[in-house]
Amino acid sequence: MSKLNERTNVRVRQDNSKPSSIWGRWVPQCGNPRCPTKSLTRALTHRRGGMKIDDRWYCSAECFEQTVRDKIEELITSEGKPARAHSSRLPMGLLLLSREILTSEQLKLALVHQQLAGVDFGAAVQELGFATQEQVTAAVAAQWACPVYSLGDRLPPMPMRIPRQLLDRYEMLPVHYAESERRLLMGFVRGVHHQILSTIEHMTSCTAAACFITGREYNSHLNSPSTTFTSDHEMVSDQIVGSGEMARITATYAGQMTAERMRLGICRDYLWARIWGRQQELDLLFRV
C-alpha cells in the first residue's frame, strides 16, 4: 500500500509541475523583484512587450527604468573608483638605455627636458630626437607586457563598434577582430585601461585583448576622412547627473526606439548604455 501511495504522490507532483512550466513558457517572469505585475490578465498583456537588460526580461517601462537606476547605482559604487596607476618593473628611461637606444648623457638630458617641458618621458625623448615613435611604443608595450601591432596604411573593416567618445578620451582603437574566436584586439597609445577592456567584453559579447600602436597610426586612422569611427550612433552627456536622471533618459530613448534589449557598463569616467532597437543601435554615455 505504501509503494502505491508513493507512486501516486510522484504522479501528482509531476502533474502539478506541468501547468507552471507551460506558464513559464507563455509568460516570462519579469526580472524586477518589485514588479507589480501579478495578475494573469496584466501579465498576458505585457508578454509580447517589455525589454531586456543584460539578457533579463522586464515587462514594462516602469520596471525597466527602476532596474536601470538600480544597476547604474551598483556600477558606480562597485566599479567607478579611480584606476590605480600602472607600476612598471623598469622605467622607460632605463629600458631605452638597456636597449642602447639612449646613452647615459641623453638619458640625463631627457629627464631635464621632461621636467621643464611638462611632458611624459616618451614625448621628451622624441622631441629631443633621441628616439623614434616606434621605439617609444615598443618600450611602452614592454612595460605593459603587451605586443605591438602595426596597422599600416589601411585599417580592415571593423564589425565591432566602440563609441567614438571613448576612443578619443582614452587613446585607443579597435585594430583587429577574429570572427571565428570572437576576439577583439584593442590598440592603446599610452597605457592599457583594463576596466574598459572588461566593459567592452561585456557590451560586445567578445573577448578583448590589448596591444600597442603608435600615436601616428592612431591619429591617422581615427581622423581620416574615410574613417568609420564616427559618433553617428551615440549621445554624450558631460554634465554630471544623478542615477535617477540617467535612468529616466535611458528609458526615454529605449521607449522611442522600441528597444528590444540593452546593456550597461562603466568605463572609468563614463557610464555606457547600449540600446538595441528594431532599426538601429544607440550608445548613451554619461559622465560620472
Strand order of the largest sheet: 2-1-7-8-9-6
Helix percentage range: 40-55%
User: Which structural category fits the helices and strands?
Assistant: alpha/beta
**Biggest pleated-sheet summary:** 6 strands, mixed
The shape, in one word, is: elongated
Low-confidence stretches: 6-20, 39-47
The run of helices and strands is: HHEEHHHHHHEEHEHEHEEE
As a whole number of angstroms, the C-alpha radius of gyration is 26 Å
Overview of this structure, please?
By secondary structure, the chain is an alpha/beta fold. It has 11 helices and 9 strands. The strands form 2 sheets. A 6-stranded mixed β-sheet has the order 2-1-7-8-9-6, with helices on both faces. Helix 3 crosses helix 11 and helix 5 (104-117) packs across helix 6. The termini are far apart. Residues 6-20 and 39-47 have low confidence and may be disordered.
Strand-helix topology:
Elements: H1 2-26, H2 40-46, E1 51-53, E2 56-58, H3 61-79, H4 92-98, H5 104-117, H6 121-127, H7 133-143, H8 164-170, E3 172-178, E4 183-188, H9 194-204, E5 207-212, H10 215-222, E6 234-237, H11 243-256, E7 261-267, E8 270-276, E9 281-287
Helix pairs in contact: 3-11, 5-6
